Protein: SsrA-binding protein
Amino acid sequence: MKVIASNKKAFHDYFVEETLEAGIVLVGTEVKSVRLGAVNLRDSYAVIKGGEVFLVGAHIAPYEKGSYFNVDPRRTRKLLLAKAEIRKLAARTERKGYTLVPLKIYLKGSLVKVELGLCRGKEQRDKRETIKRRDAEREMARAIKEHNARG
Structure:
């Protein structure tokens, strides 16, 4: 598995409660751009419409040598999931505060996959707590490293 792009902002803005893997429908030049790493997941999300899941707002840069085969870089793309998974996700996202957020795009063999997270939004105080916890862990690691270097 080779990670192409990850959505670090999602972990800052949401509590990720569950993850699942989905395929993504791409045209030929988009696959080439993905392989080159020209993907941005910031501000993207997934929606369920008519029993299908779609990725909205993901930016896949046009392939440089693609000429007229290139498509809109921000177009809505269909995600491939089993019907049972889609029904389960639809039921969970209808609850207040839950959304589907793409966490990363990666290659699995020759296939392009998206890791979706079932996420609940963080409030401002939760974000501050996360930052405090991360800073405290960093301080502890630094202190342990200094202690081990002296002794």
In short: Helices lie at 8-13, 28-36, 83-93, 124-150. The longest strand covers residues 14-24.
